[in-house]
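Dear colleagues,

For the upcoming journal club I promised to circulate an example of a predicted protein-ligand complex. I picked one with heme C because it came up in last month's discussion. The inputs are reproduced below in full, followed by the predicted structure.
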Amino acid sequence: MNVRILFLVIATALLAPAIVLAQQPAGTEQVGDLSGVKAITIERGLTPEAKNCITCHRAVQPGIVSDWVDSRHGHVGVSCLDCHAVAEDSPTAILHEEVLDMEGYDQNLLDRGVYVSVLVPPSTCARCHPVEVEQFDSSGHFRSFHQIIPKDSLHALVLTHEGRDLPDLKTAPDETGCMQCHGTEIKLDDDGRPTQRTWPNGGMGNIYPDGSTGNCSACHTRHKFSIAEARKPWACASCHLGPDHPDIEIFENSKHGHVYNAEGDSWEWDTAPGAWEPGDYRGPTCATCHMSGIGELRTTHNVSERLYWNGWAKRSEVRNSNDPMSPLLGNGPEGRKKMKQACASCHSEIHTDNFFDQADKAVRLYNEGYYDPAKKMLDELQAKGLLKENPWNDEFQITFYHLWHHEGRRARQGALMGAPDYAHWHGFFELQQDLYKLQDIYEKRLESNSIE
Ligand code: HEC
Ligand code: HEC
Ligand code: HEC
Ligand code: HEC
Ligand code: HEC
Ligand code: HEC
Ligand code: HEC
Ligand code: HEC
């Protein structure tokens, strides 16, 4: 055992936060290489304090304990304490015996003075996984909630139009909808525990009381935190579905989804990070193209890194920004190069190049053939005062919204991920219908100089 590891074993045995002292500076280690963190824990058994948590919680929530027992964390001895113990002055710190109903449990197992928090922010994972957190913080996923904060029209949609401005009930659409995918700012009650308004939620962009952002269990759920789970398309499907971003449906419609659905259950999903390669699997999943290492390409937790276009905005432009808050986050040409590297392990260059030429043509057709003319009509009606004040009760504005937010995204994302039904029937077919409808309303309003 070298001196560094000896130090780590002693430090981690004392208190989990000490691990932060021993981390290499972010960025110096290999992406996806866990050898650094392995050294911390592999030679450490569980301390008596850590064992006590498990002994009692086996009775309290056997489901949580059995997930943990089955996990890599369980195997290498990363315990409940490592993630849930916090300093006494943490805003989320509680003592079991002061706050929780402990009746029926052997309180002798409780270690007096050990403060715990039900919330586990990404900053806790960052003690042992700094690279993944840094990459996440540079990704479009980081902004999932941050970007909603300033958008008054969306708050009006949720609270007024959907929530009917009912004082006690108007936040329900957020609590059961937006927040479960996008996250929210988690607030605390007087005990330091999360409020009903803000938790539980599985959203991607939670802002925690300590300011750290994200949700590391969005794709590898607690308490297994399994890479096998995150590599399957279902890890993305709970959010990337539906009329406005049907990525799981698009995947299933693609030849890749065909291959996955036909035989994915016999593929090798557990291969170590950085070593998961064709042979373990025959076709790519969401993770393979957007995150995992393949060939020369390294694993990333920045899902924006391999993108060329912005495929969700009203009009698609090439990505060219380092700011995670920018819709154009990423470097388009670099991103395309990386994405093509993911294809290169299984396809020829001409197959990949021609495919992207087909797809890019579809994106440009959407921009120039649909969005631009629709936007021109919208601007003209706006200037002439021929739009209703309530956009959700105005046939023109609703159709315009569907054109970019639903049909337009389906056409673009369907084309870029090889899904003909979404590119065509749910995409361009409906786009031309939208455009004719917009032209009709536009002409009627101009002729009559009034809103029908
Ligand atoms: C003697 C039994 C016992 C021991 C020992 C114990 N817990 Fe608990 N724990 C409980 C009970 C009971 C609850 C409340 C369960 C509920 O609300 O459903 C709880 C709740 C929690 C919660 C949720 C807190 C909240 O705000 O609701 C966390 C996190 C937690 N325990 C972690 C730990 C950790 C970490 C340890 C080891 C340091 C530990 N527990 C030791 C019995 C125990
Ligand atoms: C690798 C870190 C990690 C470890 C180890 C860990 N947890 Fe958790 N735990 C989490 C995360 C993340 C959450 C979700 C909290 C949030 O939403 O911020 C959570 C949530 C919880 C909750 C509330 C969830 C619910 O569904 O009610 C309890 C209780 C809990 N953990 C107990 C435990 C116990 C007991 C152990 C040990 C067997 C343990 N945890 C080990 C990370 C961890
Ligand atoms: C005390 C250090 C520590 C903390 C805190 C920690 N981890 Fe880990 N994590 C490890 C170690 C050690 C491994 C196993 C490395 C190996 O497999 O060689 C691991 C493995 C993993 C894996 C790979 C699992 C697999 O199936 O191979 C994931 C995913 C993961 N951690 C996520 C998290 C998340 C999310 C958090 C925060 C909620 C977290 N970890 C907190 C140390 C930690
Ligand atoms: C908990 C919900 C959730 C899960 C699970 C999820 N995402 Fe996302 N994803 C989002 C949200 C919300 C956004 C939009 C972020 C924004 O622009 O505000 C997003 C955006 C993206 C983007 C576009 C980023 C950009 O820069 O525009 C990609 C690519 C992406 N996700 C891929 C994935 C993949 C691949 C998975 C699974 C491995 C996944 N996501 C799992 C919620 C999720
Ligand atoms: C089922 C999960 C889910 C729900 C519910 C959801 N979103 Fe999203 N949202 C996403 C995903 C995934 C993306 C990324 C789309 C993409 O990259 O193509 C996204 C993108 C966005 C964007 C950026 C693109 C844009 O349209 O400007 C905003 C803003 C947004 N969502 C706001 C909201 C609001 C507000 C709500 C509730 C009224 C909501 N979302 C409900 C998953 C969801
Ligand atoms: C969008 C989905 C998604 C989110 C969110 C996510 N992960 Fe992962 N994670 C994955 C996938 C997919 C892999 C497997 C990559 C591969 O194939 O090797 C993975 C692998 C890992 C590993 C194993 C080492 C590696 O890099 O392959 C660790 C550790 C890890 N994640 C930690 C985290 C932490 C910490 C966070 C929060 C900042 C987080 N993850 C958030 C999808 C996600
Ligand atoms: C064969 C590789 C591949 C697979 C598999 C794949 N994608 Fe994609 N994805 C792409 C490509 C290529 C693009 C377009 C990138 C660009 O801008 O050139 C894209 C675009 C996206 C976008 C739009 C990003 C934006 O700019 O708005 C999202 C979101 C997304 N993918 C999520 C997913 C999800 C979720 C899955 C699985 C259900 C998945 N992808 C499966 C290759 C893939
Ligand atoms: C792990 C291997 C693998 C990776 C990586 C991969 N594909 Fe595929 N792809 C396949 C297989 C297998 C098929 C089915 C071949 C058939 O139809 O006989 C396929 C089919 C296709 C098809 C349908 C047309 C055809 O030739 O059958 C397209 C288009 C395609 N892939 C594009 C891509 C693109 C673009 C990428 C990278 C973003 C990519 N693939 C990454 C394995 C892969």
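Two points we might discuss: Residues 414 and 420 are 7 Å apart (CA to CA). Confidence is low (pLDDT under 50) at residues 1-31, 38-44.

See you all on Thursday,
B. R.
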